[in-house]
Amino acid sequence: ETGVTQTPRHLVMGMTNKKSLKCEQHLGHNAMYWYKQSAKKPLELMFVYNFKEQTENNSVPSRFSPECPNSSHLFLHLHTLQPEDSALYLCASSQDAGRGAGNTIYFGEGSWLTVV
Amino acid sequence: AQSVTQLDSQVPVFEEAPVELRCNYSSSVSVYLFWYVQYPNQGLQLLLKYLSGSTLVKGINGFEAEFNKSQTSFHLRKPSVHISDTAEYFCAVSARSGGYNKLIFGAGTRLAVHP
Predict the structure, then answer these.
(1) Contact between B49 and A109 using a beta-carbon 8 Å cutoff
(2) What mean pLDDT comes out for the span A68-77?
(3) Nearest Cβ partner of A42 from B34, B44, B105?
(4) What percent of the residues of chain B are helix, what percent strand, and what percent coil, each to the nearest 5?
(5) pLDDT, tens only, B26-73
(6) Which of B46, B98, B102 sits opposite A104 (nearest CB)?
(7) Could you tell me which residues come within 8 angstroms of residue A86 by beta carbon, excluding any fewer than 6 positions away?
(8) How many CB atoms lie within 10 A of CB B47?
(9) Distance from CA of B42 to the nearest CA of A (A)
């Protein structure tokens, strides 16, 4: 079992749909992250949660809504997305985002999202 | 503010040849640097990281990187590449804002190893 698991791996949704991406980490970490990876763009940090509290919202549009019910689970709720939101969404975790700047961040395999 | 520049978007190389992937960073504080690799259709995997101490850092799969403070560089090297090294490589620097740490990534370098 991998340390960070993301489901679904692939998702196709219409612009009026509501869907969610799920992430679960089995590493005992306390920080979780959502990153967006688009073609020909650097990885963009979207949200950070530390001990279930949101510590970073990197000016992400409100059509993306994160939820972190506990330190092991992270969701990204999607609503009325645009075609330009099509991308690979990567979930990650680390020991503690508030301490240990050298801590390794562990990534899941990503969820490929296509908005039609 | 911290930032990372990867100087080459693509690097083609023949199998068993040496390779260097270049990374420069900008930081006004103590710096922690990382190299990640992303194989096709997969997430990112840590290759190596520099926190302190020896400026030559050895990682997995035969890769190493050298931290050069005066040149603000952290170039990744491998003396002999394999076809299986074909992947996207990302350099990253740890940044701190609002009391929390996060990774700032470069745009990535696509390494294509040819037979």
Answers:
(1) no
(2) 96
(3) B105
(4) 5, 55, 35
(5) 976 778 999 999 998 889 999 999 998 889 999 999 999 999 999 999
(6) B46
(7) A38, A113, A114, A115
(8) 23
(9) 5
